[in-house]
């Protein structure tokens, strides 16, 4: 089944040039039944990528543009009064899909963010007196723009913790941008074909769960997480004043899942410490709360995680 991963990437590459890290992150989150937060300036093919992924997997895809005047019912749906029948009927919102793109999630107020994140956790929606189970797979890719500061609502740390991965998307290389411009100007895009059935997706998830991870690598993951909570125990005394809250227990759970998927994407049936180091920043960068001192000195969570990776002994 691992050849199916290559087929999916081939289909996505018909319309997306480069951005391998974002594509890998999307696949890891989808196959591990997690959700992903992507941060990057506009125009980096975030919408195009998730749309292409949905088509290659034969899944439903919807996009919701988050704005300051958005209401929870605009995402979840609502009971609508039908005067002809003198009754209420359910109008389902865009949340009823397989892949939902929550575009610029930090533009919506807290009550909308909370409504979405509750559904992400519970995989169900309650409208009126009726509870609807969402059709699986259900996967949310939320984006936020790091450039604009006005008219945005910071995502609370407890809500950020619900995202399995946070990917930082950067500009394409000059060569990739040249290829993008040539493709768009000439209209040279191929049609994306669905290369995976629902049963094959279930089989892929099963194979990923069976990827072997040694007890030593498992302990290494726990040590990395613990080092963000108690840096002084690992000789990282200089970091103690910069970390207000370390990584949550959800990080350990998600790391165990994600490293197996990372190894599988690389064509292996076992996990190595390299797989852990490769995905550690994506899993932890949005789940470590820094102190005012760290922000004042321009210290980032990525720099904290890098120091932890350099210090904790590799098995």
Q: What does this molecule look like?
A:
By secondary structure, this protein is α/β, with parallel strands linked by helices. It folds into two domains: 2-186, Rossmann fold; 211-311, Helicase, Ruva Protein, domain 3. It is 45% helix and 16% strand. The protein has 13 helices and eleven strands. The chain has helices at residues 2-12, 20-31, 46-57, 72-76, 110-122, 157-160, 174-186, 198-209, 215-229, 249-265, 273-284, 292-296, 301-311, and strands at 36-39, 61-65, 77-82, 87-92, 99-103, 124-127, 130-133, 139-144, 165-168, 243-245, 289-290. The strands form four sheets. It has a five-stranded parallel sheet with strand order 2-5-8-1-9. Strands 3-4 form a two-stranded antiparallel sheet. A hairpin with a 4-residue loop joins strand 3 (77-82) and strand 4. Helix 2 packs across helix 10, helix 9 crosses helix 10 (249-265) and helix 10 (249-265) crosses helix 11 (273-284). The protein is globular and about 70 Å long. The two termini are 30 Å apart. The model has no long low-confidence stretch (mean pLDDT 83).
* Beta-strand share of residues: 15-25%
Overall mean confidence score, pLDDT: 83
Distance between the termini: 30 Å
- Spans of at least 5 consecutive residues whose pLDDT stays below 50 are none
Radius of gyration: 21 Å
Give the second-level CATH assignment, the architecture of the largest domain.
3-Layer(aba) Sandwich
- Give the strand line-up of the largest sheet: 2-5-8-1-9
Order of helices and strands: HHEHEHEEEHEEEHEHHHEHHEHH
CATH homologous superfamily heading of the largest domain: P-loop containing nucleotide triphosphate hydrolases
SS summary, helix count: 13
The proportion of residues forming helix, as a percent range, comes to 40-55%
Q: Estimate nothing, just give the exact number of structural domains.
A: 2
Shape: globular
**Sheet/helix structural class:** alpha/beta
Would you report the number of β strands? 11
Broad CATH class of the largest domain:
Alpha Beta
How would you sum up the major sheet?
5 strands, parallel
**Can you tell me the CATH topology of the largest domain?**
Rossmann fold
């Amino acid at each position: 089944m691992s050849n199916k991963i290559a087929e999916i990437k081939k289909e996505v590459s018909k319309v997306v040039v480069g951005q391998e890290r974002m594509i890998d992150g999307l696949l890891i989150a989808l196959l591990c039944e997690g959700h992903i937060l992507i941060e990057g300036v506009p125009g980096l093919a975030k919408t195009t990528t998730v749309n292409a992924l949905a088509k290659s997997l034969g899944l439903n895809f919807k996009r919701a543009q988050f704005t300051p005047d958005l209401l929870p019912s605009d995402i979840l749906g609502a009971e609508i009064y039908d005067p002809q029948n003198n009754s209420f009927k359910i109008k389902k919102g865009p949340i009823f899909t397989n892949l939902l793109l929550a575009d610029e999630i930090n533009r919506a107020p807290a009550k909308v963010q909370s409504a979405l994140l509750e559904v992400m956790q519970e995989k169900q929606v309650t409208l009126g007196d009726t509870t609807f189970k969402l059709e699986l797979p259900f996967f949310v890719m939320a984006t936020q723009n790091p450039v604009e500061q006005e008219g945005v609502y910071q995502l609370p740390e407890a809500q950020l913790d619900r995202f399995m991965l946070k990917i930082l998307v950067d500009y394409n290389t000059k060569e990739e941008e040249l290829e993008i411009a040539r493709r768009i100007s000439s209209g040279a895009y191929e049609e994306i074909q669905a290369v995976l059935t629902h049963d094959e997706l279930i089989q892929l998830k099963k194979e990923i769960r069976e990827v072997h991870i040694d007890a030593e690598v498992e302990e290494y993951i726990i040590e990395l997480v613990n080092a963000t909570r108690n840096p002084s125990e690992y000789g990282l005394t200089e970091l103690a004043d910069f970390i207000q809250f370390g990584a949550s227990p959800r990080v350990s759970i998600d790391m165990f899942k994600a490293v197996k998927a990372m190894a599988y994407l690389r064509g292996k049936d076992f996990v190595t410490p390299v797989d852990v180091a490769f995905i550690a920043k994506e899993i932890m960068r949005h789940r470590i709360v820094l102190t005012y001192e760290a922000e004042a000195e321009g210290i980032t969570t990525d720099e904290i995680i890098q120091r932890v990776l350099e210090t904790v002994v590799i098995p």
